[in-house]
Amino acid sequence: MKNDPNYIEGFVEKTLIDDLYIINKKLFTDERGSFREALKLSTLEETIGTKFSVRTWNYAVSNPNVLRGIHSETCSKLIFPFSGAGYIAFVDLRPKSKTFGKYLGFNIKAPHEFSYFKAEGIGIGVLCTGELPLSFSYLMDKEYSDLKQQGLMWNDPDVKIPWPVSNPILSERDKTNPTLRQLFPEEFK
Q1: What CATH number corresponds to the domain at position 90?
Q2: Which of 40-49, 81-90, 157-166, 172-181 has the lowest mean pLDDT?
Q3: Is the CB of residue 116 less than 8 Å from the CB of residue 88?
Q4: What angle do CA 82, 72, 75 make, to 5 degrees?
Q5: Bigger pLDDT: 185 or 5?
Q6: From the CB of residue 179, how many other CB atoms can be counted at a distance below 10 Å?
Q7: How many CB atoms neighbour CB 11 within 10 A?
Q8: How many domains does one find in the chain?
Q9: Whose CA is closest to 172, among 158, 151, 144?
Q10: How many CA atoms lie within 13 A of 7 on its CB side?
Q11: Quick check: pTM over 0.85?
Q12: Residue ranges of the alpha helices (H) in the chain?
């Protein structure tokens, strides 16, 4: 593909939260439709400084007003939205991190230009804001049965994510997620 004069490598960009990256790859369109190289593993691994060995590939569809999360597992994830519109928020849930308790949020809308890579310990919440479902897939470096999971209250008063809805549809699990202060009381002394 590098011999193609239209080929653009794209980039993996660091964010204000350590170990959270945005991956931008050019979308090519013509009369047939579109094509996008969603990920070049060597570029990602060079940027993050470690191997990302995929063990699980998941696919999710969220109906309008559904909020999944905020979830954090003991794995790294590559998240790729590909249809619909939404808001995605990442929260640093690593007490030893200099950005502990901070969040970054992104509006997402098809055609999606970006993928997101998050390291273990960074929580993620995905909200469908459009009138049609939001579809996304994510690759993980561990199998689901090997994960330890942790949730955070979606509207945590210390994190203050400005979700674009005030009353999202939540799973029973997400309705009872603890606050940051409940998860890490020692960090608030």
Answers
A1: 2.60.120.10
A2: 40-49
A3: yes
A4: 80
A5: 185
A6: 16
A7: 12
A8: 1
A9: 151
A10: 7
A11: yes
A12: 41-48, 172-175, 180-183
Q: Is 138 a catalytic residue?
A: yes
Catalytic residue among 71, 103, 112, 116: 71
| Ramachandran region, residue 82 (left: φ > 0; alpha: ψ -120 to 50; beta: rest) | alpha
In this predicted model, what pLDDT tens digit does every residue of 42-57 receive, in sequence order?
888 988 999 999 999 9
CA 16 to chain centre: 14
Residue 4 included in any domain: no
- Joined tokens for residue 96: 């030893």
Q: Is residue 85 part of a domain?
A: yes
Q: Which of 21, 103, 116, 138 is catalytic?
A: 138
Say if strands 122-128 and 56-62 run parallel, antiparallel, or are unpaired: unpaired
User: Tens digit of pLDDT for each residue in 129-140?
Assistant: 999 999 999 999
Domain range spanning residue 127? 11-188
Contacts of 149 (CB under 8 A, 6+ apart): 71, 72, 73, 74
